[in-house]
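quick one before i forget lol
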Amino acid sequence: MDRNEQIAALIDIEGVTKEEIVALLTTPKDLAFADVALPCFRFAKALRKSPVDIAKELADKISADLPPYLLSCTALNGYLNFKFSRSNMAEETLLRVLDEKESYGKSDIGAGKTICIDFSSVNIAKPFHIGHLSSTVIGGALSRIFKTLGYNVVRINHLGDWGTQFGKMIVAYKKWGEGADIEKGGVKALHQLYVRFHQEAEKDESLNDLGRHWFKLIEDGNEEALALFTQFKAVSLAEAKRVYDRLGIEFDSYAGESFYNDKMQPVLDLLEEKGLLVESDGAKVVEVGEGMPPCLLVRSDGATLYATRDLAAAFYRKKTYDFDKCLYVVAYQQNLHFKQVFKVLELLGEPWAKDLEHVNFGMVSLADGTMSSRQGKVVYLEDALNSAVEKARSIIEEKNPSLENKDVIAEQVGVGAVVFGALVNNRIKDITFSYDKMLNFDGETCPYVQYTHARCASLIEKAGGFDVKKADFSCLENAHEIVSAIAAYGDMIRAAADKREPSVITRHVIDLAELFNKYYIDNRILNAEDGVKNARLALTFAVKQVIANSLALLGISVPDKM
C-alpha cells in the first residue's frame, strides 16, 4: 500500500470510494503547508456542508487517532492537509524504489481499457522533417505513459499516402527521375522531384492536370501507377523506420489514408440516409453548426478529403479496437478540422464520439522561419539527429576525452537532447529549433538531467554499493523536498496522462535533478559516517532510478558515465 492509499484508508466519506479519494489527493507546491492535501469542495453538494466544515470534521476525527507515519492532519480553507514523519516517509519511499526499481511509478488504473493514439503520420515521398518531431515524440511519450498506467495502447501511424501529390510525383519521376536515383537517393531524391514539379508547374499549368490524371490511375488500380506508388511508399517507410528506431518509436498499425479508400462510401451512405449530407455548389457537405463552416466531404469533382477518410478511420478503429479513448496528436492548425469531424460523428448519434480527442501542439520552426516542402526549405529529422549527435560527440571530447563508448553516449545525449527539447515545455507552445540550447549541459536540458543520472551512478560505484539495512533515515530530514519529489512520481505520471502532457514528466525530472545537485553540493555522501552514508546513497539510488524511469517514458536513454 503506497502513501496515498494509506491516507485514503483514513478518510471515510459516504458514497466516495477509496480509489476516488486517491485520485483527488494532490501534492501542494509549498510543502510547508502539507505533504499531501485533499480538496473537499467536491463533497459539499452530496454532504450538504461547506468544504471548510467537511475538512475540519475529517481533521478532528483523524487527529484523534493519528497513525505513526503522520506528524499532523489539519484543515485549512476547505483542504485536508497531511504532514508526514520525515524519517518514516524517507524510509518507506526509498525502500519502495529499491524494491520496484524499473517498475516504480507503474500502476494498473488503466487495466481493461484501450486507448488508440494516432501520431507522427508522416507523408509518403516527402521528407520526414523536423516539423514531424513534436507529433512523433509527444505520441511516443503518451503511448509509454498510458502503458505504464496499465492501458492497452494501440499506436497508429496514419500515413499520408493518398492524394493528387502522388500523381504529381509520378509525373515528376517519369519526366526527370531514374529508378537508380530513387533507390540510392531515397526520400531526398523524391523530394527534389517534388520541388521541381512545382517549379515547372508554375511555368506549365498542364502539369497539374497530368498529375490529377495519374492520381486517378492510382485510384483506378492502373498497374504502372500502383507499382510506382508502391515503390515510393517502400522507400519512404524504410527511411522513416531508421528514424523511428533511433527515437525508440514503434507502431501497431501503419494503416494510412489509402487504407480507407474503400471504407468511405458506407460512411457517406449513412450520412445521406440520415439526411445530414447535403449538396452545396456541386459538393457534398455536412452542416455542423456551432459557428463552424460546413464540413466538406466530397468535392464537386467527386474527390474525397481528409475529413472523409478520418470519419472512415474513426468507425474502423471503434469496430476494430473498441477503444475507450482515441487521441489524435496533431498540430493546432487542425483544430477546426477535428472539431468538424467529431461534430459529424456526434450528429450521427455515435455515443463514442465523445471519446475522440484532439491532442494539439505548437509548430516547430527554424531560427529564420517555418518550413515548406514545396519550396524545398526543410530540415530532415534524420539530419537534425545526426547534427545533434555530432555536436554531443564534440562536447564529450572536450569535457571527458578519456570516456569509453563515446559514440554510444553521444547518440544517447544527442538524440535525447532533441527529444527532450520538444517535450520540455507545454505542448501547445511553438518551438524554435536550436542545437545550442538543447545540448547545453547547464539548465533545463536533457544533458543536464542525464549528467545528474551519471553523477548518481558514479557516487554509487565509488562507494562500492550500500547497505540499506544500516541506513540512518533520520539524517534525511533536510532531503525532504527530494524525497517528496520521488514519492510524487506516480502522481506525475497520472497527471501527465490526464492532461495529455509529457512536459509534466520533463518538468518534474528537471526539478528532481536540480534538488539533488544542490543536495550533493551541501552534503557529504561518500565520506559521511556509516549510517548517514548508507541513507544518502539510498537516496542517490532512488534519484538515479526515478531519472532513468522518467526519461524512459520520454523515449530517452540514460548513460551511467558522461
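fyi The two ends are 37 Å apart (CA to CA).
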